[in-house]
């Protein structure tokens, strides 16, 4: 499908209050700019190794232009509680390394060729290097956490590491199974995406030695923001501007990945349509013609709009999680990120 | 090659003192039996997950009959310093999980079909599950360390995790390169094997709150024991009893892995023989006929005996590392493990 078609998704987002301008990540980027420079330096330094292949592989992914949303969350969450030390820099870098390690392993697991419009590391250096450099970055992440010395932060982040891996395995075991329910799907994205957002946000108040209610607020914010983020990502796979995102429209379809737009279309479909989905996803008949037909069914049942609707639902929970905290520029920037994540779809 | 041939290696081990009986791991096994039962229970419990595939994959490897040498080292190293608490159980389990995670990832990286005589997890559940369950076990290992709450133990084990991954990448980058020196090879096995032995031993005195000299002694013991262990392992690949070990003789040869028996045979060979090694290892002509020829050259230049000789060298350093410590049954069991690791070759 060409970009014009895929870009003409035209989902109407029922924002609670109508706005003249789109939400932006810019306030968060501006507020964390100085700290993020230090994070970026630490990333480069900790991805270094005498073993030449390690910085090569790591920098390929690190320099590929991700937004670095997760470490920004950690920095902002610490600053939200007036943190003045240096440890949030190390924790933010740990979070980004955990994410990068996951991406390296994911590309091997998903057999992906492209990420953010560039060849994946596994296509250039092979699966072997991707697995091992991922392990190295995960090890470096833990070393930085240990260096910070907060057992609470270590607890939150090591638990997240387990949950993420568990979620990926769960995803593997529901893959290509059209009987997957929305609840199964939610369990997967809660574990594989939202858990790291939650941990990234929670270690902010931890390092700032805020109390339990602050930790819970940021954890809930991160968790629900992560759910919204992944829901939108999964919608974009069936309708976003592939070129902008460096993704191919229909990647999930071709991999037989079960995401909400497909789950809803399957459940709402006729018996014939369900047979089509089983043939396409379970039997792997994911030709371009079948992708066109899948997009038609997704449009017919309005499942992209409903997927975005679910994202808005979780975004609202994230918003209310932060609501009781004092109004500061940090809070307002974190609030705007919720809308930004959802409005990416346009 | 049949087992009789491969078993007739006949390397004479020049032990410093002649002995009537072979060294055994039995004293260590007997001394740690009660604690190892608790470790085994913890292994089963921490490899559990609601995601069914995780315990399946983990138990496949965990139940496959490894000796569990590394966790026994941790237990014995703690008991050597009169440790009376419970935390050594968790640390020993963490060490075994780190090892298991490494094996799962190694099998993917090496594309191995067999481990200890059984199909590898990746042959049964695929590379994907092997990568992800490895990640899960690594995460669980860190959670148990965090639970123990010793930042020193966390530091030692997280640093080991990095070094191990670094060593695996280094191994990848020297793979199939016949110009690899003995020093390059030593760097690889120091990182990929000996570092975890060293960490496993060092966390014993850490948890027992022994002083710096106790930590250093056990770290040095573990490091040198690990070097000896890997050297013997690499010798066995060209001459051990494959059936006993669950390995195929010549696996390393077929994978183009550069180990000391090959490095020495290459360096001591004629120009023609060096051309043969380059063809076999670098160009991948690892037919059975070429394996026979390789074994002939290894015999011609006595490189298995010399590889074992290097193992004895490191074994002696391990022995001297422990020497100043009080004579106890624990020390004597740890000493005997050194000889056991080396004498496996017969």
From TrEMBL, chains A, B:
Pfam families reported for this sequence: polyprenyl_synt
Superkingdom of this protein's organism: Bacteria
SUPFAM superfamilies registered for this protein in UniProt: Terpenoid synthases
InterPro entries named among the record's database cross-references: Isoprenoid_synthase_dom_sf (IPR008949), Polyprenyl_synt (IPR000092), Polyprenyl_synt_CS (IPR033749)
Keywords: Magnesium, Metal-binding, Transferase
EC number: 2.5.1.90
Example GO molecular function: all-trans-octaprenyl-diphosphate synthase activity
Example of a GO biological process term: isoprenoid biosynthetic process
Swiss-Prot/TrEMBL cofactor(s): Mg(2+)
Database matches in CDD domains: Trans_IPPS_HT
Catalytic activity annotation: 5 isopentenyl diphosphate + (2E,6E)-farnesyl diphosphate = all-trans-octaprenyl diphosphate + 5 diphosphate
Entry keyword Metal-binding: yes
Family to which this protein belongs: Belongs to the FPP/GGPP synthase family.
Purpose of the protein: Supplies octaprenyl diphosphate, the precursor for the side chain of the isoprenoid quinones ubiquinone and menaquinone.
Protein name: Octaprenyl diphosphate synthase
Organism: Rhizobium etli (strain ATCC 51251 / DSM 11541 / JCM 21823 / NBRC 15573 / CFN 42)
Upper lineage: Bacteria, Pseudomonadati, Pseudomonadota, Alphaproteobacteria, Hyphomicrobiales
This protein's encoding gene: ispB
